[in-house]
Write a structure and sequence with these properties.
InterPro entries: CitD, Mal_deCO2ase/Cit_lyase_ACP. The chain is of the alpha+beta class and 101 residues long. Helix 1 links the parallel strand 3 and strand 4. The longest helix is centred in the middle third of the chain and has 18 residues. Helices cover 42% and strands 23% of the residues. The protein has a single domain, classed as Ribosomal Protein S5, domain 2 (2-Layer Sandwich), CATH 3.30.230. The two termini are 18 Å apart. Helix 1 crosses helix 2. It has 3 helices and 4 strands.
Length: 101
Amino acid sequence: MELKTAATAGTMESSDIMITLTPSDSATTISLDSSVEKQFGDQIRAMIQQTLDALAIKQVQVTAVDKGALDCTIKARTVVAAYRASGKTDYNWEDINAWIN
């Protein structure tokens, strides 16, 4: 999936995560701000990267502000931000669910 513009998904509410994807000319970077980073930072980054890989997104700058989101929320917010950034509107949620599980 090719990203055309920056896009954000999620909120700053408790148990959510705000994911911002910005197209980049270099390798993927993930910047994470989380109150539980010491315990779950590696897992959060891995979940974001796994979702990006499933969507075939290679060069992107990711900014994530986590407020205790579960894995399913991290995946969902990453997918929505990717679709917004790509400009795609033809969602096939059954296919997306299969890709990221």
